[in-house]
Amino acid sequence: MVSVVVPVYNEKNVIERIMDRCTSFDYSNYEVIVVDDSNDGTTEKLSKWAPRIKLVHRNTRRGWKGGAINDALRFFSNDSKYTIVLDADSIPEKDLIIRFIAKIDEGYDAVQGVQVPDLNANYSRISGATSAIQGYFQLIEQPSKGMIGLPVSITGSNFMIKTELLREFKLAEDIGEDWDLTLRLLTSGRKIAYDPSIVTRCEAPFTLGEAIKQYIRWSEGNVRGTAKHFRKIMKSDMKLISKLDIIMTGLSPLVTLLLIASSIIGAYLALHSFYFELILIPVSIFTVLSGLLTMVASSLKMGMSPLIAVFSEAIYFIFTPFSIYASIRGLALKRGSFHRTSKLGYISS
To answer: Helices 125-136 & 208-228, crossing angle to 10 degrees?
Structure first.
């Protein structure tokens, strides 16, 4: 028995699309639980799928996505063995469940598939740029880490976990619930696999404001979760290189702050020393070109023009001060606030 959970909040533009897919998987023994916090007409659209789905309507948004999934557990079938979590803007393949089971049965506790954020990539320049930025993590960084034996992370959607583990660990009822779950699984010795063949297409933010707010949410959640579990990470049985990679990933906004600070200091020193100038100029060029190269690779991987990489790199630099702001929030606040990323229901290709 596989339980497919879809947390929903005001998704009237995409809800019919995801329900069509979730009720037609090539697998017989599964259930669909939709936890609906909506007030925009989504609930009315969902009613047409009853009783094929278990519809749980919440009157509050307690715990946001993590709280919704935790509440869903009360409605699981008693014999549920695996759980799949999907976001409302996803378009999963019909053989999704079969692929997940084949991978997790290799001896893993959780399996993360790939989320390709290309549904609305051609809608605007911003959606194209954010598609390339997010595509880098999904299509290049995650599989690269998997190939060389570094830990991969759960990214909030298109993942399977053993139901008994989900009942045991539950999700943090805060932003960054996926990263928090990743850290708790890894530090307790559980194994997470990344399978790039398990593909679900999804949307990327299509305005700069939406992209910034999403990036702030991710950055704040990652920093808070890493700081919260820092001691567990260092005391775990993971290899030192894995511990360092997790910390660098989770605290990347703070690393960005340190890089900026060092660049400013370096620039000052370069003005007063020819030798520092010799160091600073090539390092700066390398930093810009390496970032541009990653965006070119991501754009090509997603079938987009490499020219989008230049704009993507510019957007990434715009993210930087907001990322730093988010990292300070992550360290200073015990709990964040959730901003919903709008969905179009638009498929550009």
So the answer is: 20
One digit per residue, pLDDT tens: the chain, 349 residues?
A: 999 999 999 999 999 999 999 999 999 999 999 999 998 889 899 988 988 899 999 988 899 999 999 999 999 999 999 999 999 999 999 999 999 999 999 999 999 999 999 999 889 889 999 999 999 999 999 999 999 999 999 999 999 999 999 999 999 999 999 999 999 999 999 999 999 999 999 999 999 999 999 999 999 999 999 999 999 999 999 999 999 999 999 988 777 767 666 666 666 666 666 666 666 677 777 777 887 888 888 888 888 888 888 888 888 888 888 888 898 999 999 988 888 888 888 787 6
- Between CA 23 and CA 32 the distance in angstroms is 8
| CA dist., res. 243 & res. 200, Å (int) | 29
Tally of helices (H runs) and strands (E runs) in the chain = 14, 8
Tokens linked to 232: 């567990």
Predicted TM-score of the model (pTM): 0.90
Start-to-end Cα distance in the chain = 34
Rounded distance between C-alpha atoms, residue 148 and residue 349, angstroms: 33
